[in-house]
Design goal:
α2 links the parallel β2 and β3 (57-62). The chain has a 7-stranded mixed beta sheet with strand order 3-2-1-4-6-5-7, sandwiched between helices. It is of the alpha/beta class and 235 residues long. It has helices at 16-24, 45-50, 68-78, 98-106, 127-144, 160-166, 175-185, 210-225, 227-234, and strands at residues 2-9, 31-39, 57-62, 83-86, 113-117, 156-159, 191-195. The two termini are 24 Å apart. The longest helix is centred in the middle third of the chain and has 18 residues, at 127-144. The protein contains 9 helices and 7 strands. The model has no long low-confidence stretch (mean pLDDT 88).
């Protein structure tokens, strides 16, 4: 088994070097590769990435910013693993916890694993951010008659070919809602593993906004209604 860690990056010069070192320093129970997509950074991120000399790392660059969903799509197309997981470069998630998501797969207990965040006073960006995430997740549960805990989590582990078949078209942060919506519509129920989370503030570069939450609601609704197209994808 080989794991492809997909890392979208946009203007993360302050954290990218540490993020890459932490990902590479984890003792994974399987072979792995790190596929980084620089999504049109203009702050020196490209210079940091150019200095990386590790055979396990592949760097791809977009000539302009296209959004997280587009960056993940590029990374997934270039990846060569059996499984994939998304790992952002902002250090809100701990790469050291990825083996915990792999464990249920290796044990044959799951095919898709989500890292579910436990929000606390020391790890939440704001009250409305947490409530918005819970509302979007609850909305998806109602629409698909499911019960997942964290739709927007970055840590989504699944077979690489399955992710490619989802054919994610949302260019921005809406890709999280589209991916989960399509998985639920196809009948998949992610296995959930608790993970730590340390949200950063606007001054540190946090990019997601309330409009992304509104977009997620629309994407979930649209995905739920697209019965014929999703059924075709499932086949």
């Amino acid at each position: 088994m080989k794991l492809s860690i997909l890392m979208p990056v946009c203007n993360e010069a302050k954290t990218i070097e540490v993020a890459v070192k932490r990902v590479l320093g984890v003792a994974y129970p399987v072979d792995f590769e790190l596929v980084i997509v620089d999504d049109g950074s203009g702050d020196g991120t490209a210079d940091v990435l150019a200095a990386i000399a590790d055979a396990r790392v592949r760097v791809i660059s977009h000539d302009r910013n296209r959004g997280k969903g587009a960056a993940i799509r590029t990374a997934a197309e270039a990846a060569s693993g059996d499984y994939m997981i998304i790992c952002d470069a902002d250090l809100e998630y701990a790469p050291e916890e990825i083996p915990g998501l792999l464990a249920p797969v290796i044990a044959g207990e799951a095919e898709i694993v989500y890292g579910t965040r436990t929000f606390g006073s020391h790890s939440s960006f704001s009250f409305w951010y947490v409530m918005g995430n819970k509302f979007v997740t609850t909305f998806a549960n109602v629409m698909f008659n499911s019960y997942i805990s964290d739709l927007e989590t970055c840590f989504k582990l699944m077979p690489l070919e399955l992710y490619r078949r989802l054919d994610i078209r949302s260019a921005g942060f809406g890709m999280e809602a589209e991916a989960t919506g399509k998985l639920l519509r196809m009948g998949h129920r992610p296995y959930e593993v608790p993970v730590s989370y340390h949200a950063r503030g606007r001054e540190q570069g946090k990019k997601i906004t309330a409009w992304d939450g509104i977009e997620a609601l629309w994407i979930i609704t649209r995905t739920r209604m697209a019965r014929r197209r999703i059924a075709a994808v499932a086949k």
